[in-house]
């Protein structure tokens, strides 16, 4: 087969005219789209939810596979936490502490702990995770730039929302973001490197959430039996997987992060590498994995115009979630809320549901 290769003169003309990209890009895009479709279509998840199978046995086997894929250490709690807490600020309504802990040797996770003044300890705790925003200061409403303020305007000051609702809010910085971003290294670059070194970025971030619960357990004012985790986008993704493998999380609030893989992580254009897990789709789809959270609580928040998680596909996927929670005997422990907008959090819709879930814990 002969392939036409442009002569040096032809290349020169194309480059000077700015036309080389126009010639090559459409061909490359078409080829990528075809490849993605073929790969996805020929992949059959081997451990999908099956209403006929033994639910508890399926959960155990799927969770064990997911733990392997996340590449978590055999004993995630095996290293000293080296927890540090220092008062940073206070208002009439709440106190703010700067905290840090060591999830594993060589890693320090900084965070903010907000405690409400109008409640008595021990407080229920909401772990608050930002996505691809400038960092955890967004969670506590501390805008440094106009971009930060736009992010907050999209309902992302979730630690402030949680403390106003009577929760202790533990906002931690996720690896690769904000104070934990390495100089000059974008999330995608850090994610590819960590993946090649043995653990996907999502595994790193899930490990941090597990150790954050170890931190909570060590604080007498915090109630480790009432812990939730929430976040938008990449914060929702980590909240989801953390709840799949961490039984101490009683609630996951997964905002604009739940969607069948074929229409999110496996769709065009490719997403940030931080959310890719080796082999996950050959094991299960995201709606199947949600069954690992039962009988605990899962609140999925979607946006009707979220271009990263098409709402019709989110609704389709939620049918499987409902069936799995029904098989677990807790059909009302999984909820889906659809906000009237795009890829953001919807506090006005979500908090009444969270409130009612947490009230159920206290009775
Ligand atoms: Zn990323």
Helicity range of the residues? 40-55%
Query: What's the CATH superfamily of the largest domain, by name?
Result: Alpha/Beta hydrolase fold, catalytic domain
State the low-pLDDT regions, or none.
Answer: 1-32
CATH topology of the largest domain: Rossmann fold
Distance between the termini: 74 Å
The percent range for strand residues is 15-25%
Number of strands: 9
Number of H- or I-type helical stretches = 12
**Overall geometry:** globular
Strand order of the largest sheet: 1-2-3-5-4-6-7-8-9
Bound molecules: zinc ion
The biggest sheet amounts to:
9 strands, mixed
CATH C-level label of the largest domain: Alpha Beta
CA-based gyration radius: 22 Å
Number of domains: 2
* SS content category: alpha/beta
CATH 2nd-level architecture of the largest domain = 3-Layer(aba) Sandwich
